């Protein structure tokens, strides 16, 4: 089994906690909550000038 970095473990635990909290508040299924979270994460990456492959957008592109 591959070892995870401390940062990856912290992100994983935080993600789990957020999804669990959102699930209990909205009544949505875990998979639906995860889908919504992925959509929001994608929007955040785009808004901050990054794309999901981790490469910075070229200057001037919107």
- Radius of gyration over alpha carbons? 15 Å
Q: Could you tell me how far the N terminus lies from the C terminus, measured between alpha carbons in angstroms?
A: 40 Å
Number of DSSP E strands? 0
What ranges have pLDDT less than 50 throughout 5 or more consecutive residues? none
The helix content, as a percent range, equals 55-70%
Order of helices and strands: HH
Beta-strand portion reads: under 5%
Major sheet description: none
Assembly type of the chains comes to single chain
**Alpha-beta content class:** mainly alpha
Number of helices: 2
Task: Give a structural overview.
By secondary structure, the protein is an all-alpha fold. The longest helix is centred in the first third of the chain and has 21 residues. Helix content is 63%, strand content 0%. The chain has a domain of 42 residues. It is flat.
Task: Record the SSE blueprint.
Elements lengths: L5 H21 L3 H18 L15
Helix pairs in contact: 1-2
Task: Summarize the entry for a quick read.
The chain is 63% helix and 0% strand. The chain has 62 residues and is an all-alpha fold. It has a domain at 6-47.
Key features?
62 residues; mainly alpha; 2 helices; 63% helix
């Amino acid at each position: 089994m591959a070892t995870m970095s401390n940062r990856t473990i912290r992100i994983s635990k935080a993600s789990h906690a957020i999804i669990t909290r959102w699930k209990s508040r909205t009544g949505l299924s875990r998979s639906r909550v995860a889908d919504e979270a992925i959509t929001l994460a994608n929007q955040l990456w785009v808004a901050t000038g990054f794309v999901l492959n981790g490469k910075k957008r070229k200057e001037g592109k919107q």
